[in-house]
Queue: 2 jobs
Job 1
Amino acid sequence: MVVASAPAKVILFGEHFVVEDKFAIAAAINLRAKVFADFNDSNFISISSDINSPNTIKIPINMIISGDIHGYSPSITPLLLILHEFSFKHHLLDRGVDISIKSEIPMGAGLGSSAAVFVAFSAAILKLYNVKFNLYDVIELASKGESLAHGKPSGIDATISAFGGILLYRRSQGFNRLNVKFNAPIILGITPEHRSTADMVNKVLKLKYKYPSIFNLIYDANDKIVEEAINALISSDINRLGELLNISHGLLSSLGISTLNLERLIYAARNAGAYGAKVTGAGGGGAIIAISNESTVSSILKAINDNGGKAIISYISDYGVNVDECSN
Ligand code: MEV
């Protein structure tokens, strides 16, 4: 049996801007999705998942090979597309497989839950069929799922989930790892709203095309923030980093991605002592991040919970995708 796991992410700076080839800084966090895969003696691929509600589907291998993968739920179809792509590229999909997915990452909250599942899933399949692969191969396969799930993703979610740590990312240039120490807690506050990343990305782009001269300035301001944030990270200046998170949130709010619920959580966190707080991910609901020192964590967690959010404490994780073979 093969077990692969991959982390959730937070975008510290630059979500949405990154879609239009601006800079972003993303960090992997210590919440993970796990995928277990093992051969079975049938001609079926069986996928069971605890995401949304527990369910299992069984699909004949020849349907995956021929690409006849329509009519399944939106959380399953991208996985079938990854398998189809794998069979197309490697011609190895010749044995049935039992796959089980378990995730501790809140879904649809801008924390990269789907990318983490796709990355772990891709790594598990490559390993199970004994393909020699590197992290770029994993990202390439996982991106097929991301494209189906999110339209035209920048690629930042799959990249950070595969590599872990803190990355400076630009769509046209790829990434640089930021070798900085950031041990402070990152507090997540999740709102009950559900939204689609593709819809939020399209909403922002529509507004950008309507007001190009204004938006170009806002987009350039993002890159200045990222530049300052790199210096703040290098010098471990958490106060400055917090202020930059607040400024970044102002820009993201001007793109139209904040909501009353997100604002409530952001102000609750700031008033409870956070150095800074902002929406993270696509917005329209989802999650905020707040940074703080250990002494204010409990009051920030309480403030988020008291204001209708679900608070979670997280830490940046250096570990990207991990894959192991084990006996059952
Ligand atoms: C989603 O985590 C981040 C967005 O910038 C979309 C993307 O980069 O693909 C909103």
Job 2
Amino acid sequence: MNTENCPLVSVIMGSTSDLPIMEKALEFLDSMGVKFEVNALSAHRTPAEVESFAANAQNRGIKVIIAGAGMAAALPGVIAANTVVPVIGVPIKGTFDGLDALLSMIQMPPGIPVATVAVNGALNAAILALQILAVDNRALMQKMAAYKQGLKTKIVKANEALSKLDYNNMV
Ligand code: RP5
């Protein structure tokens, strides 16, 4: 089987209304050159399809699943209940500032973990997904290390800017 074009990461969202947030994950995966797929599935509106997707994910070569959903966000939990592929949940801010979705994802019962990132934290979900993939992928590990190294630049620039503040008692 030619696996060159098989997705390694599957990004699922409960609705296309989640796309503006989930795009942060897609952009990061794309920038790192990792093959991914994107689909909308809903634990409440298409429960049978969610179950079938999750049950087949491992056989299809999917290594990590990122699932974003808002409100009563059962999507990542239901996927996690039907696969051993690691699931990263992205709570989407809708009602209650996203607390409803956050609690729906983070309060999973023992045995069915969902690695939940911050509300609207799609970028972190993609970073975590690639860190998981990088465990046995040296080239990707080097890319992720370079990415993390690059984050330091922001703080170097912040300190340059802060050093220009002018207060009488700032020493
Ligand atoms: C959830 O309900 C979706 O993930 C979305 O965040 C929210 C609202 O969905 P739409 O009514 O916009 O399709 O299932």
